[in-house]
């Protein structure tokens, strides 16, 4: 995890520190815990290794089985842009492309300082489901942590800007785009500010690892997802006796 990613997480969750300080003076536990909840909000993905930032939509549906544990479904979809460079590719692809570029430079087809960089449009969505541990000791705030395990799908559409990069892209992605599915793993957590038992504001972060396009890209990547938005709760009160 890069220092930049860590800094963003700290800046995003500094309100949680205020939550804990304030909550330390509030001793009453939550007594109205709805069984079902829906979250819908804005999300931001950051993947520093690929210089990729994406923005989009985040949806969660949860079932509170106990006051301390819930089960949920998670979906997010984001779009963004970056540039594909040869240093991101597998050694075999790097060797082939470097050899081709060296030949073209030697023959004067491209200038000696030519560097391959292909602007790329990306659309990514994730699906996950699993448990979440919940701490409800304070009425105004609910804290939670969870494993982040699921599947990620990405479509990358290169936008080459010259004949050389166009020819190379056609060799790597003859259809004009690359798509891939793979699993991801990591962890996440956050907190809800509870305006009422039916409505709150949720802020959360997840840090996950995946290796999309393993046939093309040499390394896997760590991605941070930051999300914020309203959460709506309904159903019976599971805390009622």
Task: Describe this structure in a few short sentences.
This protein has 241 residues and is α+β, with helices and mostly antiparallel strands. The protein has helices at 3-23, 91-106, 163-172; strands spanning 34-47, 52-66, 69-85, 117-135, 141-158, 178-194, 199-210, 221-237.
Give an overview of the whole structure.
By secondary structure, this protein is of the alpha+beta class. The protein has one domain: Beta Barrel (Porin). 20% of the residues lie in helices and 54% in strands. It has 3 helices and 8 strands; from the N terminus they run H-E-E-E-H-E-E-H-E-E-E. Strands 1-2-3-4-5-6-7-8 form an 8-stranded antiparallel barrel. A hairpin with a 4-residue loop joins strand 6 and strand 7 (199-210). The relative contact order is 0.22.
Question: What keywords describe this structure?
Answer:
single chain, 241 residues, Porin, 3 helices
Order of strands, main sheet, comes to: 1-2-3-4-5-6-7-8
Give the total of domains: 1
Q: What string, H for helix and E for strand, traces the elements in order? A: HEEEHEEHEEE
* Helix proportion range: 10-25%
Distance between the termini: 45 Å
> How much β-strand is present in the residues?
over 45%
Task: Using the alpha-carbon principal axes, give the shape.
Answer: elongated
Q: Nearest-angstrom radius of gyration? A: 22 Å
Largest sheet: 8 strands, antiparallel, barrel
Which oligomeric form is depicted?
Answer: single chain
Number of strands: 8
**How confident overall, as mean pLDDT?**
90
CATH topology: Porin
CATH class: Mainly Beta
């Amino acid at each position: 995890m890069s220092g930049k990613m860590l800094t963003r997480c700290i800046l995003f969750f500094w309100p949680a520190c205020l939550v804990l300080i304030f909550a330390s003076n509030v001793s009453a536990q939550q007594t109205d815990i709805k069984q079902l909840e829906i979250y819908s909000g804005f999300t931001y993905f950051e993947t520093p290794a690929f210089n990729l930032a994406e923005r989009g939509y985040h949806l969660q549906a949860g079932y509170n089985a106990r006051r301390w544990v819930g089960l949920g479904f998670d979906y997010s979809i984001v779009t963004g842009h970056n540039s594909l460079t040869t240093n991101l590719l597998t050694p075999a692809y790097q060797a082939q492309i470097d050899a081709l570029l060296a030949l073209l430079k030697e023959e004067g087809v491209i200038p000696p300082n030519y560097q391959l960089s292909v602007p790329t449009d990306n659309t990514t969505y994730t699906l996950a489901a699993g448990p979440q541990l919940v701490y409800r000791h304070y009425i105004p705030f609910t804290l939670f942590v969870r494993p982040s395990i699921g599947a990620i799908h990405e479509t990358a559409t290169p936008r080459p800007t010259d004949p050389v990069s166009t020819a190379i892209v056609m060799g790597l992605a003859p259809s004009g785009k690359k798509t891939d599915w793979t699993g991801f793993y990591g962890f996440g957590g956050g907190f809800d500010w509870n305006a009422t038992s039916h409505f709150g504001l949720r802020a959360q972060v997840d840090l996950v690892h995946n290796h999309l396009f393993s046939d093309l890209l040499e390394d896997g990547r760590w991605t941070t997802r930051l999300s914020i938005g309203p959460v709506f709760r309904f159903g019976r009160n599971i805390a009622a006796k």
